[in-house]
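Please decode residue identities from the backbone states below.
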């Protein structure tokens, strides 16, 4: 769709949304809290955007973003009812189903998980499977138990002897050209380039078959059953926030991000936004045809089956209890992704 037509369609949709939202805001705004999974960053930008530009307010919501971080326990706050929504992921929600905890994913902002493996540019590593030739892979414990098991099951040559614990410092990787380390597409490569002065090789697991959603809007089954209108408005407003953050004036949102996380820089934010666009983290797959945030059974099941194959999930688990498609994939965001 040409940009002019794209903007016209989007403006029309937003105008209709504004008219509907005006009726909502005639009543007192519903107070809603959303817990993120880490310190404020561009990867949370759409939610901050919807606060900063009044999108949540237009949808009759008074939203508080509860910042995550190393000492935060936002997932536990969701389970205990202290917050309304959380930035979850399918592994956590399916695990919750297995434990009898009724958590539900209602939107998938990231169609691709930004998890990457990072290698030196001059180590002869040109494609994902070449990583199996390296002596060392620095991985977190969670990574070792999940996507590394997936790597061993789907590619030849990966072995347990390669594993060394990742201590969230790039120093061991930088000191060893025959190593790779885990990271997030939108952050660690930027820091490595700043520290070492070279651009590392970056391999996105999602582009090599690893299929979890990421940056979900997760809530409780009680919330879905008792306040579906609030859930729908929060999902719709968040989707609008993400479109505006990616393609509109995001300066106020970025100021809120830096206020919550003073160590965040403009350079890191710009890099993160560029990589999210370049790799289709938000706009790819089903979201291109059905709107930002789309969840489908086929995509969710593909990840479930991957995890069953490496014995992370039990095959008898009813994975469909971990998500619902009723709040997304309604073409509300189609103009945003064309």
């Amino acid at each position: 769709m040409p940009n002019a037509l794209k903007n016209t369609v989007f403006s029309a949709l937003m105008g209709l949304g504004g008219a509907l939202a005006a009726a909502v805001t005639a009543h007192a705004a519903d107070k809603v809290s959303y817990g993120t999974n880490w310190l404020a960053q561009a990867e949370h930008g759409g939610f901050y955007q919807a606060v900063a530009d009044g999108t949540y307010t237009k949808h009759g919501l008074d939203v508080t973003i509860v910042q995550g971080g190393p000492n935060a326990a936002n997932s536990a706050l969701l389970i205990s009812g202290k917050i309304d929504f959380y930035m979850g992921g399918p592994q956590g929600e399916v695990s919750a189903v297995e434990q009898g905890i009724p958590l539900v994913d209602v939107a998938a902002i990231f169609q691709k998980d930004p998890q990457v493996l990072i290698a030196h540019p001059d180590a002869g590593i040109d494609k994902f499977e070449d990583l199996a030739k390296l002596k060392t892979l620095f991985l977190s414990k969670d990574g070792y138990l999940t996507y590394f098991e997936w790597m061993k099951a789907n590619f030849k040559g990966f072995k347990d002897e390669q594993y060394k614990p990742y201590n969230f410092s790039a120093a061991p990787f930088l000191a060893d050209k025959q190593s790779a380390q885990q990271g997030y597409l939108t952050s660690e490569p930027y820091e490595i380039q700043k520290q070492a002065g070279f651009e590392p090789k970056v391999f996105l697991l999602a582009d090599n078959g690893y299929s979890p959603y990421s940056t979900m809007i997760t809530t409780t089954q009680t919330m879905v059953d008792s306040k579906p209108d609030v859930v729908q408005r929060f999902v719709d407003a968040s989707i609008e926030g993400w479109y505006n953050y990616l393609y509109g004036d995001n300066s106020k949102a970025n100021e809120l991000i830096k206020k919550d996380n003073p160590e965040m820089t403009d350079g890191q934010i710009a890099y993160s936004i560029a990589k999210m666009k370049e790799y289709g983290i938000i706009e790819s797959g089903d979201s291109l045809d059905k709107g930002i945030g789309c969840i489908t059974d086929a995509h969710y099941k593909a990840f479930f089956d991957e995890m069953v194959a490496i014995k992370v999930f039990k095959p008898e688990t009813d994975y469909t209890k971990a998500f619902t498609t009723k709040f997304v994939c309604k073409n509300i965001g189609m103009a945003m992704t064309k």
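Observation: The chain has 16 helices and ten strands.
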